[in-house]
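Dear colleagues,

As part of the handover before I leave the project, I'm documenting each prediction I ran so the next person doesn't have to rerun anything. This entry is a single chain, and its sequence is reproduced below.
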Amino acid sequence: DDNEELLPIKHKIDHEIGGLPESLKTAIRMFVLARAIRLAREQHNEHNSMLVNVSRFTRIQGRIRNEIHLLLDSIVASIRVNGALDEESSMRDPAIQALHDVWELEYSHLELAWGDVRPNLLRAAASTTVVEVNSSSAGKLNYGDNQKSGLNVIAVGGYALSRGLTLEGLSISYVLRNSMMYDTLMQMGRWFGY
């Protein structure tokens, strides 16, 4: 429910994007960590996908894609500069501290420790691409061309994600949509395994 100020569920095509809701930033950090966990488990060549469906307008989807890309760039830059420092020093970087906070909240119960995951953060974040999936986008999700290395992608879209598209290795979904139509609601349920 933190989205309404930045990205209300009901918005117009000309809505200005002034940043990402904190819940979406947290979801992106969860995705980076999920990939780092898979790398720590030696699952190097597996596909990893995140779904972001927050608007039916392709113009808004493009702007969200750009905002996500900026966030990922800042995460990668922080990890490159401070990720290899000792743990106490690296935690002074707000981006690394934010990743650690999400780790503690969501993943600390796993068999892995933060020290097992931390060395994989740069590869996890740097290999992530952000792709628009809609009628006007040039980006395509081509899992077949990435069988040897695995595709690591955040797919941002709307209706194109609603019907008949499979995101391989889907681990995180962020959806801000509502529907009055039963069949559309059932299609949306596919994103969550129903």
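The mean pLDDT is 86. The longest strand covers residues 48-53.

All the best with the project,
I.
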